[in-house]
Every structure is written in C-alpha cells, then in structure tokens.
Amino acid sequence: MSEGEPSYIDYEAFLDPEFSPAGFANTLVVSTNNATDTPLDLSTPLSRVLFDLQEIDTHIHSLTTRSALPLLSHTQGQTAAAEHILKETGTQITSVTQGYERLEKEVLQKWQAAEEARVAAENSLATVRLARSVARCLTLGRQLESQVAELTGRGSAQTTPTTMDGAAGTPVKEGFRALERAAITILNLRQMFSASSEEEEGFGLLRVKNMRTLRNELVIPAENMVKSRAQQTINRFSLSNSGATNGQSSMPSSYKQARDARSRLATAATTLYLLSPVPQGVITASNYKPELLISTLQGYMQTSIITSANALAKALSQLPSLDRALADISARCQDIVAVESILRGLRLPSHPLLSSPTTNDDQHTPDSENATSRPTNLLQSLLQALDTSSLPSYYWRSLASSLTNRVQEIVNRGGVSARTLRSNRDRLRNEIKDCVLRSSQVSATNHLAERGRPGTDTVVVGNWEREAAVMVGSVIGPLNR
Q1: Which residue numbers delimit the Conserved oligomeric Golgi complex subunit 5 helical domain (predicted)?
Q2: pLDDT digits (tens, 9 = 90+) for 271-306
Q3: 156 DSSP 8-state letter
Q4: Is 169 left (phi over 0), alpha (psi -120 to 50) or beta?
C-alpha cells in the first residue's frame, strides 16, 4: 500500500512502544464475543489476526518490489565503500607492519644484544669486584693470622721476642706491639663483611663459603683473643711491685720496665677503643663512646677501690699491718695516676669505621669546653662516664665512702680493735693523710718514662689536701661519735 493510501490496519497501535500483544488479543476476543458466551468463539479473532498479517505481508511485498532498485543501488554503494576502506586500511596496515619490522631489526634486536652485553658486563664487574674483595679478605686474613701468631708467640715473634724502639732505644716486646695492628686488621675485615650496598667494598662476601669460614674460624676468635689480651693488660697494669718495704711502695726496678708498662697500657687502651662496638648512626669520633674501653677501665677502678677498701678495713682491725696496707693503697693510687696520665696523652686514634672530627678550631677552644663537647683524648670519655674530673680524686672519694661503714662496724663490735682505734686516733690521722699525700709523689722514673728520659727523684703530680681530708674524715669520723 502506497504512502497516503487508506488502510484499515491501525499501524500506530502496533508501532506504539507500549503495545501489548496480550492486551490487543483480549480486545479482539471481547469485541467479537459476548461476556456471557460459553464457550467463547475464537475463530473470528484468529481470522482477523491472520487477515491482518496477510495484509501487512502484502504491503511489505509491494514496498520491496517497488523499491528493489534503490535498495540494490544503496547496498552496492555501501559494499564498494567498504571495499575501498578495506583496501586503504590494508595498505596502511602493510606500511605499519613493514615499519615495525624495520624498527625491530634496527632497534629492538640491537637493543636486546646491547642489553645482554650490559647484563654480562655488570655480572662480570660484580664478579671482579667480589673476587678482588675475596683476595683482599684473604690477604687481611693471612695478615691477621700472622699477627695472632705474633701475639701468641707461635710466629716470627717467637724467634725475635724483643725489638729496639727507635725513638727511645727501649726494648719492647714485638708480640705485644701486634695488638693494635691486629685490631686495625679486624676492623678492616669487619667493615668489608658488613658492606650493605653494591658501591661498598666487600658487598656479598658472606655468600662465599670460604669467607664465612674465614669469619667464623679466624676473625671472630682472633677478635675475642685480642679483646681478652687488651683487657688483661689493663686489669694487670701496675708500675709498682706487689710488695712494700719500710712503709714505702716498691717501684719498678728500672726506667725500662716503666716505659714498657706504659707502652703496654697505651696499646691496650687504643686496641679496646678501636674494637668497641659502633652503634647504628654514629659516624664521627666526636659522638662515639668506646663502651668496651670504658667498661674495662671502670672495672680496673672498681677492683682497685674494692681491694684497697678490704685491705684497709682489715688493717684497721689489725693495726700492726696498717703500714703495709697504706703502702699498697698508695701504690695503687700511683698506678691510677699513671693511667690518667697515659690516657690523657693518648689522642683519639684514627678509626676505620668513623670519620675524623674537624680539629682546626680545637686549638682555640678552652679545655673545659673540649672535655664536655668534643673529646680529644681517651681520658675524657672515662671521666664523663665516672662523672668526675680526676681519676685519683674518684679513687680516694670512692674509697672513703666505702670505709665509713666498715669503721663503724668495727666500733659497734667493740673489743680490743675498737679500743685500739680510738686510742690511736692521732696516729691514724697522720698516717692516712701522709698516705694520700705520698701518693702524689710519683717516682720520676715512672713520671718521665713517657717523655723518653730516665729519672731518679720524685715528682709531685697534684695537690690532694681535700682527698686527704675526706679519707681522714671517713676513718676518724666514726671514732669520734
């Protein structure tokens, strides 16, 4: 049916978006039947629907027949346009494919070859670095092994036990001199083993089995042995013999012994400074606390104080042995004076794991400011740990604080010892005071040993009137109560 031709079919109802087939069927049934009819006659509505379908089919056939040529022309045009687009697209795809193949050949393949060469070069470089680190570790290990043999007397040091010190002409045991050198070697090995980045020497060393064996079987035992030797040297340090005669402390027999003892203590202190653990974040010597050295020296001080307190407490209960006990206490104080002098003269050694602080301004800075802000020698860290300005003063004051209770116990017990102490107050006062003041008179042989020339007289190293008063008060005070 042509456009504008009348038709009884309601196309608008069928084309309505809200068209309902069930509703349309219900309308047909209701319009062709009565509501009271039973049964319903469905042939009429069905014929109506079939007739409508036939009409619509006829209408579609008429339309397609009249519009066949325009439809075919339109379809032919669309097909030609699609073929043209496909042809042009194929040409572009071929061009892009050829360009990619050219880029792949000229860039990608060359890049892959270059990447393989780069990876191979990096692996080769890492292997070379690791091999160099292993070689250096082995060299340091052999060096440490010879130094340990020198310390234990199993190496070349056994055939040449002493050597002449070129500066002073003093024989010093060569084996002991290896202590500090062994500490430096251990630090170098420790630094290599602890490397954490590829830029640091020794990175990846512990992945090599021989290096783990070297660390576990040589470096760690050697470090423990070196620490033990240095601690024993400090704990056994003494410039006087164990005995005393005529109320005077016995001194070393020669300048050579004093020089050797000082040299040993200095080397041991430097060794413990180097081997003290470096906390995380400490990068300069100015904020580094040598805990191993400080704890060893504190132990030496406490041992001297406890031993002296026990000896003096025993002597106070048995006055005939007082002179010998005071002589021994005086000798221990002189040893402490020597320790303080040696540590004050030892500047901070160069530490491989620490950067050196700038010292250009230190020459114009007061000593008190240096002592509290930037240590320049091995003594200042110990004084800060003990919270004192002098080791002898700390010794006498600590000794006095421990004596008061012991004297009070003797007095409280009563008996002959208490009566003897009370009756000899003046003697005790004078002898204790003389003991403290006598301790300030160090033999010049010992005092000048560090200066490289012998001496025979005594040298006064301080004014200890206050320490003498504190010591006298700790003993005489309980007797006057």
Answers
A1: 258-435
A2: 999 999 888 766 777 788 899 999 999 999 999 999
A3: G
A4: left
